[in-house]
Amino acid sequence: MGLKKNEIDELIDKAWKGNLERNNVIALYNVNPIILFQLADSMRKKVVGDYVTYVINRNINFTDICIDDCAFCSFRYNEGYILSIEEILAKADEAVERGATEVCIQGGLLEGMGLEDYKLIVTSIKDRFPSLHIHAFSPMEVYHAARTSEMDFRDVLKELKKAGLGSMPGTAAEILVDSVRSKICPHKISSDKWEEIIKEAHRYGIPTTSTIMYGHIESIEDRIDHILRIKRIQKETGGFTEFVLLPFMSKNNALGRIADKRSGIDDMKMHAISRVLLYNVINNIQASWVKLGLDMAQLSLLFGVNDLGGTLMEEKISKSSGSEVGEYLSPEDMEKLILKAGRIPRRRDTLYFMV
C-alpha cells in the first residue's frame, strides 16, 4: 500500500531537515521515483548549484596478482602482471603530459608486499613529479602492508603520508554489512576494521573518498545501513571528499552468476537516495561513467549527482568485469556530456579545488 500525500510530505520535510531515520529512508526509496528524483535534484542544486565537476587523472593498477579471492572480482590474475617502478613512472609521465593532476594507484594484494614496497611507489613518483597528487591504496591495502610488515596500520598511514601520499580511495568498502561481506569477500577486512582505518587516516590528515558497491546480493536495507554508516563517519571526521556509487559489474566473476541484474531505475534511485541521505553532510555525489555507461552517467546528473570522477586514461578493473565504454574520456568529451545535460562543467583537483 502506497504512502498518502501527507506522509510523503512529512518524509520530504524530514529529509530537508536532515532528520530521516532508517525506516524513513527505506520508505522514501520506495515512493514514486519521480518524487525521489525531484527531491534529490533540488538538494543538489541547493548544495552545489549547476556545476558538475571532474578531474584529469590516471588510474595505475600496478598488479592483478592477489592473495584474496573476492567473489565479485574479475581483475585477479586476469593477465598475471606486476608493473616495475619504471613502468609506473612511465604511466605517471604520460599522465602529466596529458594534463593530469592526480594518479590513482591501486592493485591486488601481492604476497610479501610490505610498507617499504608501497612507499617506494609513492616516493618514486613524488621525486620525479613533486606536484602530482597521489591518491592511492585502499584501507585493505593499508591493512595488507601492515600485516606483511608486522606493523600497526596507524604507523603505516603515518609513513605513507610522510612519503607523499595525498589521499586514499575509500574502496574495499563494498557493502559495510558483515553478513553480506562474509559471502562476497570473506577474507577482506571487516566493516569495523574498514571504518577504523578510514577514521585514523582522516585523523592523520589523509582525506579519503567513500564508496558503495551495490547491485548484487545485498538488500535495500543493507544499502541504507551502509550509507548511514558513511554519514555517521563523516559527521565524526569530516574527512570524506565525496561519495562514489559503484554499480556491480557482473561479467567474468562468481558473484555475477547469482546476482540479480540491476535496472536503470534502480541505478538512478540509488544515486538519488544517496544525495538525499547525505544532504549537507557529503556535498559531492559521484557517478562512475565507466561502470554506468555514458548515457546513464549523464542521466544521473538530473537525479542528484554533481561529479563524474576522472578521465582515468586506463581502467583495468571495470574493463575485466564487462565495462564497454572504454578506459578514457577526454576532458573535451567530458565537458560536452555535462553541457548536454544542461549543467556547467568545472575541472577540479582531487580535493575539489577548481583548476
Concise account of the structure shown:
This protein has 355 residues and is α/β, with parallel strands linked by helices.
Q: Could you characterize what this model shows?
A:
The protein has helices at residues 5-17, 22-29, 33-48, 85-97, 115-128, 139-149, 153-163, 178-184, 191-203, 220-237, 264-277, 289-292, 294-300, 316-320, 331-340; strands at 51-55, 57-61, 102-106, 133-136, 208-214, 240-247, 285-287, 307-310, 344-348. With 355 residues, it is an alpha/beta fold. It has a single domain (19-348), classed as Aldolase class I (TIM Barrel, Alpha-Beta Barrel), CATH 3.20.20.70. The strands form 3 sheets. It has a 3-stranded parallel β-sheet, covered by helices on one side. Strands 2-3-4 form a 3-stranded parallel β-sheet, covered by helices on one side. A 3-stranded parallel β-sheet has the order 5-6-7. Helix 4 (85-97) links the parallel strand 2 (57-61) and strand 3 (102-106). Helix 4 packs parallel to helix 5 (115-128) and helix 6 crosses helix 7 (153-163).
Low-confidence stretches: 317-323
- Number of alpha- plus pi-helical segments: 15
Q: Mean of the pLDDT scores?
A: 95
Terminal Cα separation, in Å?
A: 50 Å
Output the CATH class name.
Answer: Alpha Beta
Quaternary state of this entry equals: single chain
Indicate the overall shape.
globular
The share of residues in helices is 40-55%
**Biggest pleated-sheet summary:** 3 strands, parallel
Assign the structural class, choosing from mainly alpha, mainly beta, alpha/beta, alpha+beta, or little secondary structure.
alpha/beta
Q: Provide the β-strand percentage band.
A: 5-15%
Radius of gyration: 20 Å
Q: What name goes with the CATH superfamily?
A: Aldolase class I
H/E element order: HHHEEHEHEHHHHEHEHEHHEHHE
- How many structural domains? 1
* Main β-sheet, spatial strand arrangement: 8-1-9
CATH fold category name:
TIM Barrel
How many strands appear in the DSSP assignment? Answer: 9
Subunit structure: The FO synthase complex consists of two subunits, CofG and CofH.
Domain Radical SAM core: 52-280
EC number: 2.5.1.147
Organism: Methanoliparum thermophilum
